[in-house]
Amino acid sequence: MTVPQLKELLKKEGKPVSGKKADLIARLTE
After folding, report:
1. Sequence-ordered alpha helix ranges (H) in 1-30
2. What is the DSSP letter of 29?
3. How far apart are CA 11 and CA 16, in angstroms?
4. Measured CA angle at 12 (ends 25, 10), to 5 deg
5. What is the DSSP letter of 20?
6. What burial class does residue 24 get, using C-beta atoms within 10 Å of its C-beta: 0-12 exposed, 13-18 middle, 19+ buried?
7. DSSP structural state of residue 19
8. pTM score over 0.70
9. Angle 3-13/21-28 helices, nearest 10 degrees?
10. CA 21/CA 23 separation, integer angstroms
């Protein structure tokens, strides 16, 4: 998955989209 794709999913869930790719993935799997 690319960072823009991860950010799209986070935006839909209303989560912050800042940080490194690993941070974004961790946030999605919470």
Report:
1. 3-13, 21-28
2. T
3. 7
4. 20
5. -
6. buried
7. S
8. yes
9. 40
10. 5
Dump pLDDT digits (tens) for 1-30: 899 999 999 999 999 999 999 999 999 998
Match 């961790």 to its residue by tokens.
26
Domain segments of the chain as ranges: 1-30
Place of tokens 């946030």: 27
What type of residue is 14?
G
Distances from the Cα of 29 to the Cα of 2, 20, 22, angstroms = 15, 15, 11
